[in-house]
Design a protein that fits this description.
Elements: H1 2-36, E1 51-52, E2 68-69, E3 76-77, E4 84-85, E5 91-95, E6 99-101, E7 106-113, E8 119-121, E9 126-131, E10 136-139, E11 141-142, E12 151-153, E13 159-165, E14 174-182, E15 187-196, H2 201-214, H3 219-222, E16 224-229, E17 235-239, H4 244-253, E18 260-262, E19 272-273, E20 284-288, E21 302-306, E22 319-322, H5 332-341, E23 345-348
Parallel strand pairs: 4-15, 6-15, 17-18
Antiparallel strand pairs: 1-2, 3-11, 5-7, 7-13, 8-12, 9-10, 9-14, 14-15, 16-17, 19-23, 20-21, 22-23
Amino acid sequence: MKTNALFQLFVAVACMMCVGCTGKRKAQSDVSLVKETPPAVQSPEVTDDTLAAEEPDTETSTDNPPRPVAMVLEPVARDIPSGRPLSADSLYMHTEYDYYPVATSKVKVFITSRANREYDSGEGYSLVYYNEALKQWEPQPTNPIINDVLWVFTPDNPTHRQTIHFYTDKNRPGRYRIYKSFNRNTRTAYAEFELISKAQHRKLLDKISRYGEKHPKDRVIENLNTSFFRDNDTLYMSWMVNSEALQKEFRRKVLNYAAIVVNDGKEDAATYFTQPMCTDTFGIKMYTEKAVYPLNTESVAVRIVNRSGRSISMGSPYWVLSLFCQFVSVTSYAYARHLSCGEGNGYWG
């Protein structure tokens, strides 16, 4: 009995030793497995405005997603085209205005073919600034996106226009040019304009004064009362009569500036009259210096002689009558008869 008890105790101890060794080896294998397994790679976040570039398949990148690549388009400074210059008689480029405030963000350019032949071009252009200190033209940033379109200038469709934007943080006052290429980059043309700062306002006012000194009898000068700048870059002007036709004539003859306000923006509408009118001269004679004037006449001098024996007074308003669509000056008798009969149509000047 004692022998059997000792034998059973020996078997139990042996079994316990075997189980302990097995558990130790299993724990060691689990630890080594953890050390050999690499940590998981966290994939980057991909947004809607991110372009993902795919990398070539390799053994190490099969399990990794493509990395996002952000693409940003920057303005491009383009050099002056190298083609032969086109004369303005063949192809004419000009901006909407000759002068702009320095804070201008865009400029509209017009291209017109004046030759009896075809020219072709596209949206590509170059913008350059004249550096007075270095005496050279410097390329400026331009739109990096150019649409692949073809403009064909024909006698039936001679004009195209394009809006040019500025891509600088702060514009510099001075001279600028917009260059374009034509006929597969073999010919070039440009439009020039100027940005005006507050320090150059006097330059524009002097330009008006010089024209007035040379042409004192021009109607756009006689129509002008005052012109001045305020705190901003706007040129304010006071005219006796403000109309679209007179504004166009003023810009063409005197000053083509982008920021002009006349009479606070109020135009004088022509008042037409068709009702019969009667009058009596009372011995007052009114006549023009000449009996007949050419059709392109811009002004007519009128003389008034008072032989009535009374004192008279008059103001600046006047009427202009047309008869048979012709502009012919008449004597005082015919003029008075014309008014008394109420012939033709006229307008309040």
